[in-house]
Amino acid sequence: MKSKSVFIKLKTLLFLISFLFFFHCKKTDSNTGEESVSPNIQKRPNVLWIVIDSLRGDIIGRYGVTPNLDLFQKNAVHFQYHLVNAAWTRPSTLVFFTGKYASANPVNFWDYPTTKSEVEAFYRSEKRPLPKLLKDHSFDTYMVGNNPFLTDKFGLGVDVGFDSLYDFSNYSEDTKKITKKTFEVLEEISGKEKPFFLFLNYNDPHKPYTPPQGFTNRIQTNEILDEKKRNYLGEVAFVDEELGLVFEELKNKNLWDNTLILITADHGEVMHSAHAISPFTGTNTYYGHGQDLFLENIHVPLLVKLPGSNVKQSISSMTRSIDLFPTVLDYCGLSIPKLVQGKSLKPLIENQETTKRTYYGETRFTQGYGEGSEFLLQRSYRFHEVGKFWQGSVGSEFYLYTDTKKDPNQINPLRISNISDLKDMKLSPTLEKKILRFWKQIRSMEPKLPLYHLSIQPESTDTDIQIRVPQGRIRMANLPDDVVLEEKGKSVQIHTNTTKAFEISLEVYPDVSFPEFTVWFSKKQIPKTDIYTGYFGLSMASCNSNCELLYESGAQRPMILPNAKVYFWKEGGQKKSYTSKQELGTDALEILKKQGYVQ
């Protein structure tokens, strides 16, 4: 009996041990799952995205003014050849938060004011910029910094959806204020269990360069520096010191390890005298930016610390600012929207990249394409609208080709007046083919212009057509062989003797005005009542004002009415309505003056 009792006790003890072991395993399993707070939240990393305005890609580790960034770089993934896809703050920031090229967003990138129509268009088209998308996945989202383009308060930008936005663009001596507010936000964050997204945007070293006393004394270089560059580097030293404090606070709050940290810039800064006057805009851009796509304008730092990882490496392959949006989502375990034009950097970091990335960029009067060290930049009116920077006339558009291996500072570019001139320039066949291919890449990357179509059924052997535009110019896309075309500035004259039905197609370049046309058969003008338009074939006489929707046919070719002497339709969407007559308000003007945009 005694041995039986002992056996029962042992059996009971083993059961208790097994139960406790099972319970412990289940508890451990639950801790290694998504999280206990709510599904898919706790184990997601935090995201800290730091932007240092105007920081060139050749500054960190070179002048002795970035000890904190130097240390960060040694313990992170360093992308040596990172290029932004736009060359001034507003379009570059929208590239960050949409993962799309500047021209894919309805907000202009040539003038400072944002019109009501383009702001509304942004809210219609961009339902989930990065802050909103992360918020939808239970992130708390914050912006702390100096960036007036992330609010729609001043007529300068759009609201991209932060939970909390602390903008210091209307303050003088903003850098320390930004750091102080960052500390307050980190204190708030540290008491929460949900992941956070913090966008930290320092305006220094953006001009005017006014570093606090003593910071220029930290510069260590044999390079002969002028006063502006010394002050620029002094501001870099100032921001580096503030970032050191932020890094320390992150560690003190136990937020460092599980945070994805990106450090980059929205654009560079022109410091080479050869680029003092932009060849594209004719603007003085010395110690400025936004007027071209030369490397010193688009090459910026990119340092990435991965969450929960000690990965340290240096990557020389080209990367682009459109890649940052999908990278953040990738490391947060979130799906990347199909319309995003960038590509996550995760395959590159994990040595899984199979193709080389290419560059496409846009800024005022400039488009550019690049592969490796070679670039083709174009003077372009493609995205301009009537306003402060452009009054509607289209001049010559030339191209500059450079190979930065042979010409690192891009001071001796090959100038091409017209792509059609290539065959007469006596270039090597390889180079000629390459430039032509780059040109085709620019054309393929830009959004397509709307096409206007005219279908004509002549009544005689004497047909005349006149097409006019108030701004921009007409570019013929399709024209029969048996017609005579005469171009006269903003109008074209077309004459033909054919009696067969024919069709002509045209673009308005850029898409800033609506083409007006008149058709004559044997010198007799065709009235609006006999001209049919749009998908439904309504008479042009049925509308007298604001008729653009009437002309739309979408992607579908309309059914041409048998009795229609003239049929007109538009393919490719509505014309943008940007025509900026607005003046900058006092608040907006003061902000831009403080930031050095307006002198």
TrEMBL record:
Domain Sulfatase N-terminal per the UniProt entry, residue ranges: 45-333
One matching Pfam family: Sulfatase
Name of the protein described by the UniProt record: Type I phosphodiesterase/nucleotide pyrophosphatase
Signal sequence bounds: 1-27
Keywords tagged on the record: Signal
Taxonomic path: Bacteria, Pseudomonadati, Spirochaetota, Spirochaetia, Leptospirales
